[in-house]
Amino acid sequence: MIGEGGRGERRLALWLCAPATIVMIAVTGWPILYSFLLSLRRADLRFPEDQEWIGLANYATVLGNAYWWTAFGVTLLITVVSVVIELVLGMLVAVAMYRTVVGRGLVRTVVLIPYGIVTVAAAYGWKYAWTPGTGWLANLLPEGTAPLTQQGPSIAIIILAEVWKTTPFMALLLMTGLALVPEELLRAASMDGANRWQRFTKIVLPLMKPAILVALLFRTLDAFRIFDNIYVLTNGAQNTSSVSIIAYHNLIGGLNLGIGSTMSVLILISVAIIAFVFIRVFGAAAPGSEPR
Amino acid sequence: MAEIVLDGVSKRFPDGTTAVHDINLTIADREFVILVGPSGCGKSTTLNMIAGLEEITSGELRIDGERVNERAPRDRDIAMVFQSYALYPHMTVRENMAFPLTLAKMPKPEIAAKVHHTADLLDLTPLLDRKPANLSGGQRQRVAMGRAIVRDPKAFLMDEPLSNLDAKLRVQMRTSISRLQKRLGTTTVYVTHDQTEAMTLGDRIVIMQSGVVQQVGTPQDLYDHPANQFVAGFIGSPSMNFLPAEVHPDGLHTIIGTIPCGSRPRLLPREVIVGIRPELFQDTRIRHGASFTGTVDIVESMGAEKLAYFTFESGATFTGEVVARLDPKSPVREGELATIWYDPAALHIFDPTSGANLT
Amino acid sequence: MKLRWGFIDVLVVLYALIPVLWIVSLSFKDPSTITDGSLLPTKWTLNNYTGIFRNDDFIRGLINSIGIGLIATFVAMVFGTMAAYAIARLTFPGKRLLIGFSLLIAMFPQISLVTPLFQIERTLGLFNTWPGLILPYITFALPLTIYTLSAFFKEIPTELERAATMDGATPFQAFWKVIVPLAVPGMVTTAILAFIFCWNDFLFAISLTSSSAARTAPATISFFTGSSQFEDPTGSIAAAAVVITIPIVIFVLFFQRRIVAGLTSGAVKG
């Protein structure tokens, strides 16, 4: 029986979904809960004897710490700036790919290369490019500047690496949105006297809004958890840590499970707030939700 | 070959809606029965229940006297032709047609023979090694038919098999389906929303609306004696004219004037709906019975006939439109007055609330 | 107008290729010229490549990457196909919940899992083992496979399964003989995307491993130092970066059209 919601169908569905659901719950559900419990404890692996329930003290420690707020600010800055640049650049690339007739296949293929490259590999490329002496980009700068040793330029390079890698993905999502705009509507708009720019802003953009919002939601959440690029480029030096980097250092470097877990929970809450804002305030359709 | 009996069959969905309500229908062996009605009337659900693609909520479905409610589609020995043809895109025409036989584990030489025989029957032989993507709409339709025929099943179920074809091809395929069914003599249940298809193809027609069977009968029967206003309006093209009427001792008062109707008024309620088929109207050849005069709004010349549209206004609130199907030589012209004659004995009278035919 | 788009196209191609060109060029530079800062090598050498392939840790990292990636992809594909088929074709309570839940995981900050997983895996003895990485990879690849595959399944008309059922197929035969052959392109695409995800991961790879027993290639590279074997790791790191990138780039170029379809189907069409 297909599409009837009968009992046999429900049982079949249950069996089909069970393995995926169980794995996902086992690997995320329990650790999240565990993480929450750990965040309420003093749990430093360097002092295994000294463990106890300390309520929200870890949260007070983290939220009262200047490094955390710097990392939070840096993460937000990187997220906002890179997503905005990606949106503009991605839109340009998307339109170019969509409108190109000659060499369309080449452009669409080449643009996938940054997506395919392992983030860490690309990050090393950027690192060496900006390393004085080694790098062709660093050599374009005035003698004696080492951009990766200063906070501002470092963040700019992190954003550059992030934008370079993820703009193609943005462009692809936006191009699919472009393809959903019926050509006939654009012709109708030209007949109604709209010029090229008006057609883009009055017809294309409004119709693409759902695609744009989904792309933004995806990219914002993805940018917020930025880790690989920063790890390779600066490893958080000169106050360039993102929240992911600082949490990682607390765990692997500091072996402080309580603080690390607290940060994990805080990051999770931030991500939830971002998603909530997108879905509720901007009305982004949650991807995968079925139109009713 | 088989007799199919629907005994009080109903379909209710889990959300509580009733798609089909209490169908009682006996489809005789070798009969060609059409299920027709507007979209959402339950005709496809009925077909799917016969197929076994949807569960029967209550009632009994019998094929050759055996209850088959609980049987899976593959155990009912029924073939189906789908609206989209549902040809397997990754298989050639030959493989498509062989698929049901392969599943039935028939020996290979026998499969080949059957496929060839069926392909011959449907002029598909030159196409056997093509994939569905390389076929025209009409060819795809024939392959879908072939896949049903090749199994030599107890019955064919067809779900709007012609609705994806263009108008000309549809008429052509209509006659070939009719001929094929007569030749094979296989019990066939055919679903359509097109009344012309229903009238031309079926031995009997089942008209459905909102999940309820309105009337079952031969095409002529439905045309001559519609059980209610819905059937009357559904069968025939252009549709029957319906005019609200007040019943008075001197006849029925309508916007086209008073229609005399002898002694009947005493038996009728105060208000009725009068139904007159457009083809009942005449303006040149016959000039007797009753008549009305009105301004012609639009004339559509169809070649073999002329359709004249009249608009009547009565008081400030009521307007009504009447269509007359006239002789092509009729002198009616748009914007001019015309007098139209009709036989008051041939009209239908319906109850305005229940829709039942009171004639 | 055509010319202007052509100009933008050239820019796009340069944008995508120059950074790649740079790292490839770096990997071919002789140690004596590695700090000359020129975009193209002035003195070519293959030593960086021969060097990393003589490095056991890197070889081990490649093996780990391939093995862990393939196993995780395979399991995610099997489970994902099952769930995606149910989502695309069946109605059942909890369907929207499942979709929502996998969406949640797709957007989940991985770092939030690293701390608890680190501790849990140490307790269970999974730390620094293949399964210890395979499990989180399956988990994060699952939303991707479920979305992409259910989008592909939804594109296959339901009438085909109904036709197969009427032709006498069991539900499994209908799935195996009709749906799967038609879904193969979609499944290949999805598998590639899932594999790219596993291959690309860095955070889990450096957090949940402590030696070359399970450390994947990207993590191994980050541990290259200028010690005895490698005076200056720049050339080796560049060569290793090229090596781990090449298979993915080849995949991507080869399946370009399908990957575009796969990347966008889950996100836009839902």
UniProtKB/TrEMBL annotation, chain B:
One of its GO terms (biological process) is carbohydrate transport. It comes from Acrocarpospora macrocephala. SUPFAM superfamilies: MOP-like (SSF50331), P-loop containing nucleoside triphosphate hydrolases (SSF52540). InterPro entries: AAA+_ATPase, ABC_transporter-like_ATP-bd, ABC_transporter-like_CS, ABC_transpr_MalK-like, ABC_transpr_MalK/UgpC-like, Mo/tungstate-bd_C_term_dom, NA-bd_OB-fold, OB_MalK-like. It comes from the Bacteria. The lineage of its organism: Bacteria, Bacillati, Actinomycetota, Actinomycetes, Streptosporangiales. CDD domains: ABC_MalK_N. The keyword Methyltransferase does not apply. This is ABC transporter ATP-binding protein. One of its GO terms (cellular component) is ATP-binding cassette (ABC) transporter complex, substrate-binding subunit-containing. One of its GO terms (molecular function) is ATP binding. NCBIfam families: PRK11650.1. Keywords: ATP-binding, Cell membrane, Membrane, Nucleotide-binding, Translocase, Transport. The keyword GTP-binding does not apply. Residues 4-235 form the ABC transporter domain.
TrEMBL record, chain C:
The keyword 4Fe-4S does not apply. GO terms for biological process: transmembrane transport. The chain crosses the membrane at residues 7-28, 62-85, 97-118, 130-153, 174-197, 237-255. GO terms for cellular component: plasma membrane. It is a multi-pass membrane protein. This is Sugar ABC transporter permease. Keywords: Cell membrane, Membrane, Transmembrane, Transmembrane helix, Transport. Residues 62-255 form the ABC transmembrane type-1 domain. InterPro entries: BP-dep_ABC_trans_perm, MetI-like, MetI-like_sf. Belongs to the binding-protein-dependent transport system permease family. It is found in: Cell membrane. Its main location: membrane. Gene3D superfamilies: MetI-like (1.10.3720.10). PANTHER family: INNER MEMBRANE ABC TRANSPORTER PERMEASE PROTEIN YCJP, MALTOSE TRANSPORT SYSTEM PERMEASE-RELATED.
